[in-house]
């Protein structure tokens, strides 16, 4: 028998053969587009560290949401950038707050064409930039924060959010929001739990996007990048508290965590390709150092392969449109 007898290259010979044996699919429905809306903006404002991403006006948000829905994306995740902040992040739960207004706008524009999600967190709304309220010693007060998350979650459900994304990493946040939704008559509003959200350098550009007021870091509530077992504990707690879906974030530096969570979770698993992951590829491509379009698909396919049913990515509309062309 001639050597080599085994020739894996046979399955790579033509595009048709490669398509036939592809193990991982990427479709528009797998993608969720995170979007920013800025209160009182008269024009969309470019975000320097995220070329191609803007802080939307109410109008441009509606248009971009319709475009994303038209391209077939699975969902939209909205973040608000308020004009005024305070210590308690009051604008988050205010029905007239920027995010709640935007949710109503987008719901009116797209209906149920795609799933509408809201960031349920205080960091965009507080004048100190933390994801929760502070106690008299300046520490993030877990339980006082939970009460505000509950209020905020109900306001978002009332405004038309289908899924809430509590991203603050407070203990008990999923349970308290679930109870509040049920008590307020929103048993069908779901929760996408930020189960394993790590304290990460890759959120840098997002902080510009939401004009974050944070000094210091979020290490007393976001997870330490050294830990995997801890993510599985957070997973068990989120499921116990009623999470409908779970998320790992960031994606690229935590693909092993994603795989471990996907192996045991009995709910859909999402991963968030965060702002810094976006910025790195855009910056390298702008310098001519990598092939942008290939890198975009390669990273998102990798996140799917590692176990994500759903990928949040700032390229969602673009990728969906490209997939639609093929
Ligand atoms: C907090 C939140 C953050 C991101 C999503 N939700 C920032 C943070 O935790 O500092 C980051 C997303 C990204 O970087 O793309 N509400």
TrEMBL record:
Q: What's its EC?
A: 4.2.1.24
> Which SMART domains does the record match to this protein?
ALAD
Report the GO terms under cellular component.
Answer: cytosol
Q: Which residues bind 5-aminolevulinate 1?
A: 207, 218
Q: Which InterPro entries match?
A: ALAD (IPR001731), ALAD_AS (IPR030656), Aldolase_TIM (IPR013785)
| Amino acids binding Mg(2+) | 234
Where along the chain is 5-aminolevulinate 2 bound? 275, 314
Q: Catalytic positions?
A: 197 (schiff-base intermediate with substrate), 249 (schiff-base intermediate with substrate)
Q: Which reaction does it catalyse?
A: 2 5-aminolevulinate = porphobilinogen + 2 H2O + H(+)
Please give the superkingdom of this protein's source.
Bacteria
Q: Which GO terms describe its biological process?
A: protoporphyrinogen IX biosynthetic process
Please provide the record's keywords in A-Z order: Heme biosynthesis, Lyase, Magnesium, Metal-binding, Porphyrin biosynthesis
Q: Please give the pathway this protein is involved in.
A: Porphyrin-containing compound metabolism; protoporphyrin-IX biosynthesis; coproporphyrinogen-III from 5-aminolevulinate: step 1/4
A Gene Ontology MF term for this entry?
porphobilinogen synthase activity
Q: What does this protein do?
A: Catalyzes an early step in the biosynthesis of tetrapyrroles. Binds two molecules of 5-aminolevulinate per subunit, each at a distinct site, and catalyzes their condensation to form porphobilinogen.
Subunit and interaction comment: Homooctamer.
Family recorded in the similarity comment = Belongs to the ALAD family.
Enumerate the NCBIfam families for this protein: PRK09283.1
The name on file for this protein is Delta-aminolevulinic acid dehydratase
């Amino acid at each position: 028998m001639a050597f080599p007898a085994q020739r894996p290259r046979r399955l790579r010979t033509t595009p048709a053969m490669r398509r036939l044996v592809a193990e991982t699919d990427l479709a528009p429905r797998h993608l969720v587009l995170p979007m920013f809306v800025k209160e009182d903006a008269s024009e969309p404002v470019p975000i320097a560290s995220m070329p191609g991403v803007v802080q939307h006006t109410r109008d441009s948000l509606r248009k971009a949401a319709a475009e994303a829905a038209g391209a077939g994306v699975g969902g939209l995740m909205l973040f608000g950038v308020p004009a005024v902040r305070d210590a308690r992040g009051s604008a988050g739960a205010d029905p007239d707050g920027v995010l709640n207004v935007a949710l109503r706008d987008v719901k009116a524009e797209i209906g149920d064409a795609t799933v509408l999600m809201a960031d349920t967190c205080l960091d965009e709304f507080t004048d100190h930039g933390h994801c929760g309220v502070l106690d008299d010693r300046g520490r993030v007060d877990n339980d006082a924060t939970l009460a505000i998350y509950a209020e905020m979650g109900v306001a978002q459900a009332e405004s038309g959010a289908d899924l809430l994304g509590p991203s603050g990493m407070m203990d008990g946040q999923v349970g308290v929001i679930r109870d509040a939704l049920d008590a307020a008559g929103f048993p069908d509003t779901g929760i996408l739990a930020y189960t394993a959200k790590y304290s990460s350098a890759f959120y840098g550009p997002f902080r510009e996007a939401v004009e974050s007021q944070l000094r210091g870091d979020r290490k007393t509530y976001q997870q330490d990048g050294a830990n995997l077992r801890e993510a599985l504990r957070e997973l068990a707690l989120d499921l116990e508290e009623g999470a409908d879906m779970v998320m790992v974030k960031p994606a690229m530096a935590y693909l092993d965590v994603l795989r471990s969570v996907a192996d045991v979770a009995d709910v859909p698993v999402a991963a968030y390709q965060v702002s810094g992951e976006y910025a790195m590829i855009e910056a390298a491509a702008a310098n001519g150092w990598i092939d942008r379009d290939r890198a975009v698909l390669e990273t998102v396919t990798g996140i799917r392969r590692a176990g994500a049913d759903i990928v949040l990515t700032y390229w969602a509309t673009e990728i969906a449109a490209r997939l639609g062309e093929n």
